[in-house]
Amino acid sequence: LIDFEPTEEQRLVLGVVAELARTLLVPRLRDHEAAGAVADDVCRAAHELGLGTMLLPEDAGGEGLGLGTAVLVEEELGRADAGAATGLCGPGAFGLAAAELAPDGERRRALLAPFAEGVRWGAVAWSEPAPVREREGFATTAARDADGWVLGGRKRFVANAGLADRYLVFAQIDAERGWRGIGAFVVAAEAPGLRVGERHDTLGLGAARFGEIVLDGVRVPDAARLEPAGDFAAAVTRFFAKHALLTAARAVGLAHAAFELARAYAAERQAFGKPIGHFQAVAFNLADRHMDVESARWLVWRAARAWDAGAPERTALELSALAAAHAHEAAMRTTDDCVSLHGGMGFMRDLVAEKMMRDAKQLALTGSTAEQLDQLATAARLGGALEPSLLWPSSDAQPVFL
Ligand SMILES: Cc1cc2nc3c(=O)[nH]c(=O)nc-3n(C[C@H](O)[C@H](O)[C@H](O)COP(=O)(O)OP(=O)(O)OC[C@H]3O[C@@H](n4cnc5c(N)ncnc54)[C@H](O)[C@@H]3O)c2cc1C
């Protein structure tokens, strides 16, 4: 019916990624977490393999490999270390957003080619510390003047804040038009008025950096505003759905790793003369978690395939949201049970189980929350408006579902 066997090209890519994961990520998992960053030599190796840019269009210096390959790669990286996978160099969310929002090939190339040339990070800033109370939309504003745009506001939770040399910033252009009055602007890290605020001290994903950025009268030219050829809201929604799908693939890898750890322990740890995996309570639990891992993986693959195969947009959006919501729940259950199954050992830092659980929780909040994803999935199915507000930080005035 649907063939999910990896192609020859995907096998090759996966082989290379698995080797990097085995040699550079797994053995240095605690070092990366303690350092709060992925080591320079690991970033260089990942860059040389083209890991960060493989999804980018070929005309922008990428491999144009498609989401089907990207989810396999993310899964492999997440299996090794979800934290390092999140903190690795590359355009990341910036690349995905630019691919959706940049109007033409030339513009896209100018934005993304530098990522293929050197070790760099990109970032996208949407979350804000203070939601707008009196209207829909962002508190961060973009005001038009004779030379271009002036941006002002504060963003938080931004992945790669302080590392990125390019930020894509969402801001309110027209307050009257609520979520329909927003725009996306590319801002260079060195732009006068852009300041990197506090780095957030996080529960998990310690090798990745999250922080605030402050925009204080940042001037950008007209060309910094990204406007897709079609509907802006639709392009933004596609970006968030694809972003959620790639994060979900990482969660599948993490869930798989936790499941394997739990299964190995259940086969080895003895109680009353037999391995604990032979007691029904443990056996049932392992079987349930195995179902979680497999079902999440297949949903993620199916959604990626829908995008690559040019399925109707609503279908691809719905499948992505379902896959992401399920993958995060699966990763939470699997890592939690992995800790429990190890008994007292589970929460010791000698073992990786506790880190997996922390990473899973944080991964689940990256980008879109479970509630936001559920709203998108149902809106896509019911035929309602697919506003980005379904996926975005709430404000008091956010329209409640449809
Ligand atoms: C690891 C990580 C990486 C991130 N990376 C970035 C990044 O690169 N750039 C960036 O800008 N942000 C980033 N974020 C922020 C992330 O996108 C937001 O935390 C997320 O969208 C939720 O928004 P919020 O924190 O404002 O929560 P809120 O919107 O305040 O939501 C609080 C709770 O209410 C629920 N909720 C909100 N609205 C509704 C509703 N209408 N119906 C039902 N429930 C609702 C939410 O699901 C959540 O449980 C990141 C977060 C994490 C944890």
Nutshell version of this structure?
With 402 residues, this protein is α+β, with helices and mostly antiparallel strands.
Give your account of this protein's structure:
The chain is of the alpha+beta class and 402 residues long. The protein is built from 11 helices and 10 strands. It has a 4-stranded mixed β-sheet with strand order 1-4-5-8, with helices on one face. Helix 9 runs antiparallel to helix 11 (370-382). The protein binds flavin-adenine dinucleotide. Flavin-adenine dinucleotide binds next to strand 1, strand 3, helix 10 and helix 11.
Percent strand equals 5-15%
Which spans have pLDDT < 50 for at least 5 consecutive residues?
A: 395-402
Oligomer: single chain
Strand line-up of the largest beta sheet: 1-4-5-8
Shape, per Cα inertia axes? globular
Search tags:
globular, single chain, binds flavin-adenine dinucleotide, 4-stranded antiparallel beta sheet, 4-stranded mixed beta sheet, 402 residues, disordered C terminus, alpha+beta
Write the layout of secondary structure elements.
Blueprint: H1 8-25, H2 29-35, H3 40-48, H4 67-87, H5 93-101, H6 105-117, E1 122-125, E2 141-145, E3 148-159, E4 166-172, E5 182-188, E6 194-199, E7 210-220, E8 225-226, H7 232-268, E9 270-271, E10 274-275, H8 280-308, H9 313-341, H10 353-365, H11 370-382
Parallel strand pairs: 1-4
Antiparallel strand pairs: 2-3, 3-7, 4-5, 5-8, 6-7, 9-10
Helix pairs in contact: 1-4, 4-7, 4-8, 5-7, 7-8, 7-9, 7-10, 8-9, 9-10, 9-11
This protein binds flavin-adenine dinucleotide.
Flavin-adenine dinucleotide binds next to β1, β3, α10 and α11.
